[in-house]
């Protein structure tokens, strides 16, 4: 089975989430789409793009 996993956002990208998109031949799933931009654990703002 072929599976594609695409990370969308996670802690190291400045969000409080680990959102990812997973696609197989028969199914596409978006996991944890609720992300929240917030200061990180050290009080710094999220990185800008």
Total of helices: 0
Total number of beta strands: 3
Average residue-wise pLDDT = 75
- What order do the strands of the largest sheet run in, or round the barrel if closed? 1-2-3
The shape, in one word, is elongated
Low-confidence stretches: none
Q: What portion of the residues fall into strands of 2 or more residues?
A: 35-45%
Radius of gyration over alpha carbons?
13 Å
User: Which structural class do the helices and strands define?
Assistant: mainly beta
Helix proportion: under 10%
The helix/strand order is EEE
| End-to-end Cα distance | 35 Å
Sheet bearing the most strands, described? 3 strands, antiparallel
Q: What is this structure's SSE topology?
A:
Layout: E1 3-10, E2 18-24, E3 28-31
Antiparallel strand pairs: 1-2, 2-3
Q: Could you please describe the fold and organization of this structure?
A:
This protein is mostly beta strands. It contains no helices and 3 strands. A hairpin with a 7-residue loop joins strand 1 and strand 2. The mean pLDDT is 75.
In short:
With 49 residues, this protein is mainly beta. The chain has strands spanning 3-10, 18-24, 28-31. The chain contains no helices and three strands.
